[in-house]
Write a structure and sequence with these properties.
The strands form three sheets. Strands 3-2-1-4-5-7-6 form a seven-stranded mixed beta sheet, with helices on both faces. It is an alpha/beta fold. The chain is built from 18 helices and 18 strands.
């Protein structure tokens, strides 16, 4: 262990630079490139959800990205030399602290301020001959602050796995790969809540930068065992989903979630397909409305029924769940029920989701098969509604409003949405035949006219007419791999940031710009 610490967990044979050049932050600014464009956006997103009022940037450089967070946050920057001189002369609204980051800093801010502060340390650790001092500083801050974000280049992705240093950048002393950095942080008693990759810059948009989210107060929160009596119930609404409903309900039960099925008078074997699960995690089946089918898809009434049930049923948490969805915890090692328990223990009472849509590329899926295993081609959900998916909430024993927003945004007084989104894997169409049957035969003709024409719901299929091709070209989609996805798309999956991007050369710039502004509004970036 001592040898690892002496080399900061970097592989044997790596040669660090003995003395690094001072990094003058105006170089990147003159080049017009924004490095790590999503780090500060993520910091603001998380900071707001933790109720932070301050952002502390350790190694702030010229603070070009930090100052954009004013006045939403009080900004505090720590650096030395020309970079800090620039901040002090250009940004009188900020607080600028001259410190030697090669020495542990134990008095950056008073505890009562740190309690409300999110800490950022972006592109700093690689510049220091003594990174342990910085890590000790972060540890001291996180004794009071709720969260910190640290980022640094991923050496193997930037330089190649055969690189043994020194770094090409003369201002860098040493660089880590993801595993080495994770080991260093853990050995430094820093609690890593998330570790993954983020974009290197806004020109290349390559995932070549390590990003770690570190938790402070209550460092043992991820180790909390779920209490036996903690109960989660999913209200699942259904119409003609016989091909996947058994697998969908079974998957929820395996994740520790009980299911209550509300069937909108399916004309196929949807109900019969899951009757064998009654008493084994499926706690009830009802046909809605009780008097029989209406001939239309009355989504608002179905959501109203979920609202009613959530006030009368005894459970700790509820989920509004469609048959063609799979929910996942932000932590692969935690089940859905276990993750909701952690959310509850941290004092939050609602959960948002990031949507990824799985698309059919062939007609090979068979009824009753494991749809989550069969479909592997995906893309991020990019409709504005995909960025507001608050569909899990704590039982507050008070009314919850679902219907007003079409089921996308469970709302109630005193709502505190968890800072990190859960993952919602969506499987709306399973083959060409299924798409034609579902969209053209069972959805569009049955939409409630008032809901569509007055409320503006059910517009997702407006572009689909007879002859539409529901199959996608495989090369237009990504292949889902759990480990790779959780690593490469860390920022996107826990915040939604970076899913919609706009570049000057994009021919759809106007449309993308409008969508991005709408998305930023929904996730709280504007």
């Amino acid at each position: 262990m001592t040898n690892h610490l002496e080399n900061y967990f970097i592989k044997q044979g790596y040669v660090a630079r003995k003395k690094a050049a001072y990094f003058e932050d105006s170089i990147g600014s003159r080049a017009g490139i924004v490095h790590q464009p999503d780090v500060y956006a993520l910091a603001g997103y998380i900071g707001r959800r933790f109720g932070c009022t301050h952002i502390l940037d350790i190694g702030c450089g010229r603070a070009n990205k930090l100052v954009e967070m004013h006045p939403q946050f009080k900004v505090i920057g720590v650096d030395f030399g020309a970079n800090l001189d620039y901040c002090q002369s250009h940004y009188p609204f900020g607080k600028w602290l001259a410190r030697d980051l090669e020495q542990p800093q134990v008095d950056l801010l008073p505890p009562d301020v740190l309690n409300k502060t999110l800490v950022v340390c972006s592109d700093v650790i690689e510049h220091l001959a003594n990174p342990k001092a910085l890590l000790d500083t972060l540890k001291q801050c996180l004794g009071h602050a709720p969260v910190a974000i640290l980022s640094t280049p991923e050496r193997d992705l930037v330089r190649g796995a055969t690189d043994f240093g020194p770094p090409d950048n003369p201002a860098h002393v040493r660089e880590w790969n993801r595993t080495e950095l994770s080991n260093l942080l853990e050995a430094s008693s820093l609690r890593v809540a998330f570790m993954g990759l983020t974009c290197n810059n806004d020109r290349d948009l390559e995932k070549k930068t390590c990003l770690a989210v570190l938790h402070g107060k209550g460092l043992t929160w991820l180790d909390l065992p779920v209490q036996p009596g903690f109960r989660v119930v999913a209200f699942m609404t259904a119409f003609n989903e016989e091909d996947i409903i058994y697998q969908s309900v079974s998957r929820l039960i395996r994740s520790g979630v009980e299911v209550y099925l509300i069937d909108n008078w399916s004309t196929d074997n949807t109900v019969k397909a899951v009757e064998s699960l009654l008493g084994k995690g499926l706690i009830g089946i009802e046909r809605f409305p009780a008097q029989g089918g209406t001939g239309t898809y009355d989504w608002g009434d179905l959501l109203g029924r979920v609202e009613e049930l959530s006030q009368s049923m005894q459970a700790d948490w509820f989920i509004h769940h469609d048959v063609d969805e799979v929910r996942e915890s932000p932590w692969p090692e935690r089940s859905l029920r276990e993750a909701l328990y952690l959310v509850d223990q941290m004092g939050f009472n609602a959960v948002d989701h990031t949507v990824i849509d799985f698309r059919p590329v062939d007609n090979g899926f068979t009824q009753g098969g494991d749809f989550a295993a069969y479909f592997t081609h995906w893309e991020f959900g990019r409709r504005a509604g995909h960025f507001q998916q608050v569909k899990a909430w704590k039982n507050q024993r008070q009314p919850v409003a679902l219907a007003y927003a079409g089921g996308h945004n469970a709302d109630f007084p005193g709502r505190k949405v968890f800072p990190y989104k859960f993952l919602l894997r969506h499987y709306p169409v399973r083959s060409q035949e299924h798409g034609e049957k579902k969209v053209l035969g069972e959805r569009k003709p049955r939409f409630n006219p008032e809901e569509k024409d007055v409320k503006g719901w059910h517009v997702q299929y407006d572009h689909i007419e007879t002859g539409y091709n529901f199959l996608y070209h495989p090369e237009s989609l990504s292949i889902f791999d759990s480990a790779g996805f959780y690593n490469e798309y860390l920022v996107e999956r826990i915040s939604g940031i970076g899913i919609v991007r706009q570049t000057p050369s994009d021919p759809k710039e106007d449309w993308i710009g409008k969508l991005r502004r709408r998305v930023n509004s929904l996730i709280g970036l504007t």
